[in-house]
Amino acid sequence: MIEIGALRPDDRDAWEVLARGYKAFYRTEVPDEGYDLAWERLLKGDEVFGLGARLDGRLVGITHYLFHVTVWDEGGCYLQDLFVDDTVRGRGVARKLIEAVAEAARERGMARLYWTTQEHNATARHLYDKVAQYKGFLRYDYPL
Length: 144
Fold this sequence. Notes:
The chain is built from four helices and five strands. With 144 residues, the protein is of the alpha+beta class. It has a single domain, classed as Aminopeptidase (3-Layer(aba) Sandwich). The protein has a five-stranded mixed beta sheet, with helices on both faces. The model has no long low-confidence stretch (mean pLDDT 96).
């Protein structure tokens, strides 16, 4: 049975393995200090939030999300990161994490939940096409 819940202080090592796997998948380098900062923010839980998926007590999936104001409606929830251990993919972990973030967004009165992924991420997109609507947006990053 998959259990979804808040990240706990003793999840740090397992969380970091999953977080590093996520960043490696997207070929994104993060220094060790970045993982420290992210973990501190997630545990504080006042600006960014994290959930973990546990299977038989083992952390096998993570998601990070945040809430923000918008100009036109009640606000949005951005699901920033979602990663599941490859040994348990296809067992509903990612879907349960998405549903848990959706519930948190509903509880906060948000008007929408959204996320991005890369075009080549066919496995994730297969799930995303089942649970959400692709509306054709492209993302551009402006270097600062």
